[in-house]
Amino acid sequence: MATASYTPPPYQYGFADPELYQARTQPGLTEEVVREISGLKDEPVWMLEQRLRALKTFQEKPVPSWGADLSAINFDDITYFLRAHDSAERSWDEVPEKIKETFERIGVPQAEREYLAGSGAQYDSESVYHNLSEEWKVRGVIFCDLDTALREHSELVQRYFGTLVPAADNTFAALNSAVWSGGSFVYVPEGVHVTMPLQAYFRINAQKAGQFERTLIIVESGANVHYVEGCSAPSYSAGSLHAAVVEVFAAPGARVRYTTVQNWSDNVYNLVTKRARAQAGATVEWVDCNLGSCVTMKYPAVQLVGEGAHAEVLSLALAGPGQHQDAGSKIHHLAPNTTSTVTSKSVSFGGGRSSYRGLVVGNRASKGMRSRVVCDALLIDGVSRSDTYPTIDIAQPDSTVEHEASVSAIAEAQLSYLRSRGLTEAEAASLVVHGFLEPVVKQLPMEFAIEMNRLIELQMEGSVG
Q1: Domain span at residue 138?
Q2: What backbone phi and psi angles, to 5 degrees, belong to 21?
Q3: How far is Cα of residue 241 from the mean position of the Cα atoms in its chain?
Q4: Which of 265, 298, 331 delimits the end of a domain?
Q5: Distance in angstroms (rounded) separating the CA atoms of residues 405 and 31
Q6: In a domain, 158, yes or no
Q7: Where residue 113 falls among pLDDT bands split at 50, 70, 90?
Q8: How far apart are CA 308 and CA 71, in angstroms?
Q9: For the chain, how far is it from start to end, CA to CA, in angstroms?
Q10: Partners of 385 in the β-ladder
Q11: What is the pTM of this model?
Q12: How many domains does the chain have?
């Protein structure tokens, strides 16, 4: 087995801008802070009331103790709202130069020009840019930040907001519901197939800050969309908190793919609630790639509420030194002839820990359901760790459920063979890891797959040898 020595590589997106903000709340979470956030946004009364109820719920709920260690989070030390710019521009030329430089460095404008139907960028608490190509605007597609949607499409937002992930769902859903800001709103009309991805990029710049975006996606009958998000943050000695909520609604026959390529710095606590509802014949796919952060707790969920609905979760996690990637999925089969497939791939190295935490539920209405879960973990050294925590709860005897899990060490025979072909030990290990993760990476659009492979190489640099 390869030795466990490790030299951390430099974090690619660790640069930080000067902290110059037009508005920011005082650290800590109080009713006054929540009212200030809502007032700065000039929100309707019903949203302020929801926020205040969520704050009370958050204050009553304990921090979860069943997963990763969250004891170091100091909620009184976090700044919950920072405004770098007073509007979400629809022309890249109108974005402030300093913010524009940040997103140019991580490739967002270039990506939009080349292969996206629309692009958005959030800087700390609020969106600074959102744009959708004219081709999709004329077909009725809406793609904007959620703050804009609350002003311009209030009826739609009020109808769906918080109905899949209510504030009482969990501690961090309550926190998000109290202080949410930014995020994306996507609406695709009946029968419209958006053939190019929509992308949003989320950047935490400030130290001891939180980012609490809220994403709401509504896809009508027979429509199709692929939404991609990326994330990054500078490296600081003090931690930051990312607690997002995502709600996805797929009407009968709709198809939604939601792809996350997350690369937070290793001081970020990444605690996210993502849930979708699929009606009859609809398909929801989560492609979830988790790199970076000190802790990730994220379990994309799908409620299969209509006959013939399908869910697919492809999960990738890399856990390096000081990292705990606690990821997985939740599938609820609530209608006849529903199907689901979960594929989880994790790599642990340098003392990192990866965990798969999964749930498959079938109620009495789920006659003929079929579910398959495959969890594969790869350990690069003898000091890293991988765990699998599956829960299967099926009340319908006419069902087919499979669960398969494996943990393996990187094989010395593989490394020896590749070294004999002229590769260094590090190059050989990297090739093995790429091959192991390939079933997930190949599901990404080509440009994102290239970026993902580059990030994997950066993360793995120095892990063997």
Answers
A1: 23-298
A2: -125, 145
A3: 14
A4: 298
A5: 46
A6: yes
A7: very low
A8: 42
A9: 11
A10: 353
A11: 0.86
A12: 2
